[in-house]
Amino acid sequence: MNAASRLPEKSRSGPGRGGPVPGRRLRLVLAALVLVAAVAVAAVALGGGGSADRSGTASRSGSPSAAPPADPALLALARRDADDPYAVGKPDAPVVLIEYSDFQCPYCGRFARETKPALLRDYVEAGVLRIEWRHFPVFGAESEQAARASWAAGRQGRFWQFHDTVYGKPRERNKGDFAEKELLAMAEEAGVEDLDRFRADMASDAADEAVARDVEEGYALGVSSTPAFLVNGRPVLGAQPTDVFAEAIEAAEAAGADRAQGGGDE
Hints:
- InterPro entries: Thioredoxin-like_fold, Thioredoxin-like_sf, Thioredoxin_domain.
- Residues 1-21, 49-71 are annotated as: Disordered.
- It comes from Streptomyces plicatus.
- Belongs to the thioredoxin family. DsbA subfamily.
- Residues 67-254 form the Thioredoxin domain.
- Helix content is 45%, strand content 12%.
- Helix 4 (141-154) packs parallel to helix 6.
- The N and C termini lie far apart (48 Å).
- The chain has nine helices and eight strands.
- It has a five-stranded mixed beta sheet. A three-stranded antiparallel beta sheet has the order 2-1-6.
- By secondary structure, it is α+β, with helices and mostly antiparallel strands.
- Helix 3 links the parallel strand 4 and strand 5 (129-135).
């Protein structure tokens, strides 16, 4: 596999295959997201930590209560496809958490190991939450290879097993841990049955297109670091403590119940 970046250049600069550009209202909401990110950078300067960007620096967001109200265009980003192998939870769950992550991001790994199991147990299994993954490789060629490999694992219904295998332990970034040989070994450990098909899918144009679509969506939103999340359209940045996600999920569920009962908009 070519070590050079295979993502289309336009995926770095905004909308493309990802679909129509959201309108002015959404751009105003996203300006608030950029403001939250700026606050996160300030927190780093004061010694915080939470999420990794391309330079390996850490960032940290505040509580979800500081986020702007959910916008319908942001809510519409949830795909809710019952056949989506890169999602877990009921398609009609009242809350959707969209995760933009990189398999080489240490804070994404922290979320996967420390927070996601609790969210699966307490909210996904209860039918409250759906988690939808977005490929968002920001650390270069090995990140892009890992993203394509995860897509290929999903083609055989083993995305989440592959996800858990990759994040099961910390790995070195851009040191060969995500070379093709290593990815094949991870796929085998994750229970991917047809490794020849996995290898072909990983190298396919379809893999490039799927990853580019998610990258374009993320950049259109202003996402520049990982992990980044939308909880029913409200941004949460970084590997925040589990209770931050719990509060965001429960607030989103309550807001949805209020709307269903005619309680009005948020």
